[in-house]
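Hi Y.,

Following your request, here is the sequence exactly as I used it, all 307 residues.
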Amino acid sequence: MNTCVSGAAALRCAVRSRCCGYLLYSSCFEEYRTSWRLSAPRNKNLQTGFLNSYSVKRILIENKPYWLRICGICPRDRQRDGRQTLNSHSVSSEPDDRASSRAQRAAARRAQLLEAARKVVLRHGLERARIADIVAEAGGSQGLAHYHFPSREALLVEMLRTTAEDDVERARQIVRDTGTVVQRLDRLIRLALPISSDDWNWRLWVEMWVSGLRHDEIALISERFDTGWADTVRELLEEGVESEVVRCADPTATADRLSAMINGLGLRMVSSRAGFPRAYVIRLVRMAAALELGMDWQEYLRQGQEG
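Below is the corresponding structure, written out as C-alpha cells. Let me know if you'd prefer a different format.
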C-alpha cells in the first residue's frame, strides 16, 4: 500500500467519521500510526513530511471547514437509514438557536439602555440627559447605544413610550382583576396618585408633560398615556352601569373629570415643598368618585373596602 495514499485515507476517514458532531479518531489514527511506522524505515521523508497524530487532530479541529472542502464533503442536508451522516446538517438548528440567543441579548441590552435613560432623566431632566451619561449608567459604549437607537431623541422617546405603555397596562390589569366595580376603581385611584413627593414615576410624567410643549412626538405619547388611563376608567364604569351596580349618566365624562382631578392633585403633591399628604389627596378623589357614582360617601367606602 502506498503510504501517502494510506495517510490521506486516514485523514479522509477522520473527517468522515463523525458521530453527534464529534470526530472519531481512534481507528483512523491507529491506521495512520501503523502505516507511518511500517514505512518510516523505507522512506525517511515521511518522518518530516507527515505530522504526528496529535498535530493532525489539532489541525482537523481548528480547520474543520478546510478539511471538509479538500475531502470533497458536501454540506447539503441528507438522511440515510434514519440516521444523520456527516453530509446531513447535524446542527441545522444551531443557526436558529444562535439567532434567538442574539435576539435575546439585544433585547436585554436595549432594556438596560432604556432603564439607564430613565434614571438619567430623573436625575438631570429630559433636556439635559446626554447619551454619554446614559451609556455610563448602563455600562456600555456610545457605539452600542447608537446601534440600538439612531439618536438621543429616539432613545428618550422610546423610554417614555414603553414606560407609559407599562403604566397603562397595569391599570388595565386592575380592571381585569376580581373585585367589585368600586373596589377596582379605588385601586385605580391609588395606583394613579403619587406615593410621595419623590415618586419617580410621577416626576417622569411631569418631565414628559413639560417636554411635550416643545416636542410633538413626546406630546403624542403624553396624550396617548392620558387617554389610555381615562379609557380604562371609562370601561370599568360602563361595566358597572351595564351590570346595574353603579349609576353613572356619562362614563366618558366621569372618567375625564376623575383623570383631570388626579393629574392636578398629583402634580401638586410632587411639586409641593411643604408637603401635600397623600391620605388627604386620596380622600378628596374618593369623595369626587362617590359623587360621580351617585353614592353616599360612607356607601362608597363600604363597597370599596377590600376583603
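The first helix runs from residue 3 to 16.

Thanks again,
Q.
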